[in-house]
Specification:
74% helix; 0% strand; 267 residues; mainly alpha; globular; single chain
């Protein structure tokens, strides 16, 4: 891979944001609303519970981390959809741009936009609701890294869905975080799930992250095996997602779907 084509993909996204400041608002608005809503809910629960349980790290921390994953996924996917909506996807590959360079540019774009949203969430949660991230120590970096990579995996797979089935598949990708949240056990232990849902949770790296978060808040040692398993699963899914996108791209090129790609085409 060459750095210059990747930088070109990033530069295009920068020009899109600079040319339309309205695009920047969703990067901050929705995460801010989520933090404020859940922040006041946790305060209310603390009042009702008589202060015996601090719901701020339990719920608000979980919301923040899950929102971060969702924003990463959407950052990668929206960067891809910008080329779909503008009917520019085919034009990109008339240039000496490889599929690996293009996907890398999408991933870096998603990371850049999502980190900004993460900073907003951390500032609000810390200053307004007193959520202390420092207490997580090294685990904080681990949580962010696993969720970051898994969010990238989801973004690549969702982009592959749109590439294969056309722009109408866009409506299938937005509910993905909501569909995965019950299995990832964001707000409750995996043990509360029925057996078949626990099986699904066992292959989702975020479930290990939230289990480790709850263990830390309860002053219990996080499972080393669980953390290692989450890391290996995340790396495996990253490789698989890249292979899936490359396979879909080769299919749409060989079948001619790429040449017919437009906003009206169902793919």
């Amino acid at each position: 891979m060459k750095l210059r084509p990747i930088a070109g993909v990033l530069l295009r996204q920068f020009y899109l944001l600079r040319g339309s400041p309205v695009r920047i608002i969703p990067m901050f608005a929705w995460v801010g609303i989520d933090i404020v809503l859940w922040g006041f809910l946790t305060r209310y629960l603390n009042t009702v519970g008589g202060g015996h349980i601090d719901f701020v790290p339990q719920l608000l921390g979980a919301v923040l981390f899950w929102d971060f994953l969702a924003r990463i996924m959407q950052g990668v996917t929206v960067a891809f959809l910008e080329d779909v909506w503008s009917r520019n996807f085919l034009n990109l590959f008339a240039t000496p741009l490889s599929i690996a360079e293009y996907v890398t540019g999408l991933v870096l774009t998603g990371i850049a936009t999502s980190v900004l949203g993460l900073l907003v969430m951390i500032v609000l949660a810390t200053l307004v609701f007193g959520l202390a991230f420092v207490s997580l120590g090294v685990l904080l970096a681990y949580f962010v890294l696993v969720l970051l990579v898994f969010g990238i995996v989801l973004g690549i797979l969702c982009s592959a869905m749109v590439l294969r089935w056309g722009p109408t598949a866009e409506w299938l990708i937005w509910p993905v975080p909501a569909l995965l949240a019950p299995f990832a056990a964001v707000f409750y232990p995996v043990a509360t799930l029925p057996g078949w849902m626990q099986t699904v949770a066992s292959v989702l790296p975020p479930s290990y992250v939230f289990e480790a978060l709850r263990s830390h808040l309860a002053d219990r040692a996080a499972s080393t095996g669980g953390l290692l398993g989450a890391s290996l699963l995340t790396l495996l899914y990253l490789l698989l997602s890249a292979a899936v996108f490359a396979s879909v791209y080769r299919h749409v090129v060989r079948s001619g779907l790429l040449a017919r790609y437009s906003a009206e085409s169902p793919g």
